[in-house]
Design a protein that fits this description.
Number of strands: 7
Strand content: 15-25%
Number of helices: 11
Radius of gyration: 25 Å
Structural class: alpha+beta
CATH architecture of the largest domain: 2-Layer Sandwich
Shape: elongated
CATH class of the largest domain: Alpha Beta
Helix content: 40-55%
CATH topology of the largest domain: Tetrahydropterin Synthase, Chain A
CATH superfamily of the largest domain: Elongation factor Ts, dimerisation domain
Distance between the termini: 56 Å
Order of helices and strands: HHHEEHHHEEEEHHHHEH
């Protein structure tokens, strides 16, 4: 039997798009014969995964996993909403989130990490692509930690604990963990899910976005015909309103409609040091298919 070298496995992977572990197994089963290994992969449906790699993936699930002082969140995409209800896919998203707790949120390291199945995250995803029949992608991951306190998580409209379409992490520094701190973290998660802030505090606001907003406000204010000194004050006031819209700590607490988030956290004797919000598919340009045109084309119209 021919020696199963790393170069041989890599060559088979390039030819078929199958996962590394599957390629190694195929070569072993075929005694090192490349054509035989390709045929083995084809019978298992694994070589078909590469053919699906160009398809848009904007559906799927967001998954979260937590441990003391740390939480992880991942987004795994698929082509259709139907896959999000598949139990095997749900279990995969859960296992990827749990793995991120251990290896961090670097995507390449996460893809290379081994799952309980014995496959890497990347190879397990390739296996699922072949099994379920849709393209998939591990789009992003985020891990938040605190030295003391909690990293709370919240999943909006969860399909089952820890997985859904909107996920939030909230990192809260405090002298110790407590049930009340967990409750506050969950409330912050609900708030963030609803209000979609773009930064934690004013210093974190994107300078380019701020300048664009200021330019628009100046142009609007100048239409009033007021002197420049007055216009400057008008713009400063509107920038403060802008901060209240996009900065988490400056926002009005959705749970009472009055307090600032910063005041709520301060009253709890804590400090909100970070957050992350994943909304499934946000920013992905979805393909718009003209169903009527497709039917007409299929009918020769």
């Amino acid at each position: 039997m021919a020696e199963i070298t790393a170069a041989l496995v890599r060559d088979l992977r390039e030819k078929t798009g199958a996962g590394m572990m599957d390629c190694k197994k195929a070569l072993t089963e075929a005694g090192g014969d490349m054509d035989g290994a390709i045929d083995w992969l084809r019978t298992k449906g694994l070589s078909q995964a590469a053919k699906k790699s160009g398809r848009t993936t904007a559906e799927g699930l967001v998954g979260v996993a937590s441990a003391p002082q740390i939480a992880a969140m991942v987004e795994v995409n698929a082509e259709t909403d139907f896959v999000g209800r598949n139990e095997a896919f749900q279990a995969f998203v859960e296992s990827v989130a749990q793995t991120a707790l251990k290896v961090g949120d670097d995507l390449e390291a996460l893809k290379a990490a081994q799952l309980p199945s014995g496959r890497t995250v990347a190879d397990e995803m390739t296996h699922l692509i072949a099994t379920i029949g849709e393209n998939m992608s591990l789009r992003r991951a985020k891990v938040l930690k605190v030295s003391s306190g909690v990293v709370a998580s919240y999943v909006h409209s969860a399909l089952r604990p820890g997985i859904g379409k909107i996920g939030v992490l909230a990192a809260i520094e405090a002298p110790s963990e407590s049930e009340s701190l967990e409750t506050l973290g969950r409330q912050i998660g609900m708030h963030v899910a609803a209000t979609r802030p773009s930064s934690l505090d004013i210093t974190g606001v994107d300078p380019e976005a701020l300048e664009r907003e200021r330019a628009v406000l100046i142009e609007q204010a100048r239409k009033s015909g007021k002197p420049e000194a007055i216009i400057e004050k008008m713009v400063d006031g509107r920038i403060r309103k802008y901060y209240e819209e996009v900065v988490l700590l400056e926002q009005v607490w959705v749970h009472d409609g009055e307090s600032r988030v910063s005041a709520v956290v301060k009253k709890a004797g804590a400090q909100l040091v970070g957050f992350e919000r994943f909304h499934l598919g946000e920013g992905i340009e979805k393909e718009e298919n003209d169903f009527a045109a497709e039917v007409a084309k299929a009918a020769g119209g």
